[in-house]
Amino acid sequence: MPYHVSIVPQNSVQSPPNFKQHVTEQSRLSDRMSRRLTRTYQLYSRTSGKHVQVLANKRVNANGDDGAVHAKLEVETDSFGSRVRIKGVKTGYYICMNKRGKLIGKPSKDVQKGYCIFTEIVLENNYTALQNAKYEGWFMAFTRKGRPRKASKTKQHQREAHFMKRLPRGHLLSERRPFDALPLPVPVQPFKPLQDVLGETWPCTFPHLWIYSVTFVFGAGLHVSNPLVITDRRKGFCY
């Protein structure tokens, strides 16, 4: 007796997309299409008690005083992740890391390489660690004397790799702009007689005046409800 085997097709179950993996892969690529966000601040070293600075001889250390010209850094975003490029405003050199783990200043032509890109990692103690994008696990770090530490011997939890973002001295006073109040256009409608607004008249102390309640909307988003508005029935508009 022959047997018949029937095969019932089953719908293949597809796993949901791994969004975390997509973000990780895209963060490793430089974003050349979006507009870059630029910020200017100082990097305070937790160990040296000074600020990171880029000197004219392309050397990088953490011996800059607060407000020093070489300690003013310009930080540019490189992707939609936390990857940034750090440049000394005075010299124009970017902070880079060579294959030996040494920090050195480089001109703008080398910034597209991973040596000059760092990933910002915000720690639980509110400090920031800067990991090199080319060499994972290598961090920007300085000794107590402000000298760069070899990146291959650095870890994220070490004090030498902890920094705090600070504005340069006098930054707020010199670059503060006066507050400008922009007037918002508010459509002004002519007042209607009381008969058109409420459909009835409310007698007032004066025989020719009526008092009714309306709501005003100001340009700054302030609502004042139910003020008393006086209308003159002889003129047909409010005072």
UniProtKB/TrEMBL annotation:
GO CC, alphabetical: extracellular region
Compartment list: Secreted
> InterPro entries given for it?
Fibroblast_GF_fam, IL1/FGF
Q: Does the keyword Transmembrane apply?
A: yes
Question: Which biological process annotations from GO are given for this protein?
Answer: negative regulation of endodermal cell fate specification
Q: Which Pfam families match?
A: FGF
**Which keywords annotate this record?**
Growth factor, Membrane, Secreted, Signal, Transmembrane, Transmembrane helix
Span of the signal peptide: none
Entry's transmembrane regions: 209-230
Query: What are the start and end residues of every segment in region (Disordered)?
Result: 1-27
List, as start-end ranges, the regions of compositional bias called Polar residues. 8-18
Give the matching Gene3D superfamilies.
Answer: 2.80.10.50
Matching PANTHER family: FIBROBLAST GROWTH FACTOR
**Similarity annotation:** Belongs to the heparin-binding growth factors family.
What is the name of the protein in this document? Fibroblast growth factor 8b
